[in-house]
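Give me structure tokens for this 206-residue protein.
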Amino acid sequence: MKLDVKTLEADMAGTVDVSDLIFGLDPRADILHRVVQWQLNKRQQGTHQAKSRGEINRTTHKLGNQKGGGGARHGSRKAGIFVGGGKAFGPRFRSHETSLNKKVRALGLRHALSSKIKSSELIILDKAEMKIGKTKDVKAMFEKLGLVNALIIDGATLNEGFARAARNIANIDVLPIQGINVYDILRRKNLVLTKAAVEALEARFK
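Here you go.
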């Protein structure tokens, strides 16, 4: 499959051959959903916790007489029915991470990339470099390319000037190829890959 390559100035810069095994799949929503759910579960901290009845430091002295008080026969102030008592079935410290096979994760990334081509939301850039990173200049370039909400993936290292200028723009994310993931691809309207990123993806799935 051949895709057009553009420059930051929105000019044509030739074409690039991409593998149909990576960019030419028929996207499956069930696989994308599984991978996104796995990502969100993995990043959830799970540090929420409420004190149970056994963790409350209050008196266990019987509140009143067994009979004649006209109320319930409580034996501890730690009970959840009292203010300051333990929480019954409250949240506990735990891991929310779920398991997902590596093959499914890799397949999900390929389906996410293919979905962007199918919806005509993929742009290939010759390179994403600027000597002097100014947000005003980068914003003007993005307007020429029609980028308002986008994820930009570069090679193994980011150009410092471009990354510094682009990070000040709302709804624009810039990541190295190591950070590419299904959730970020799907949450942004456009996906922008540099030629270095395409080469890295081809080598990764070779």
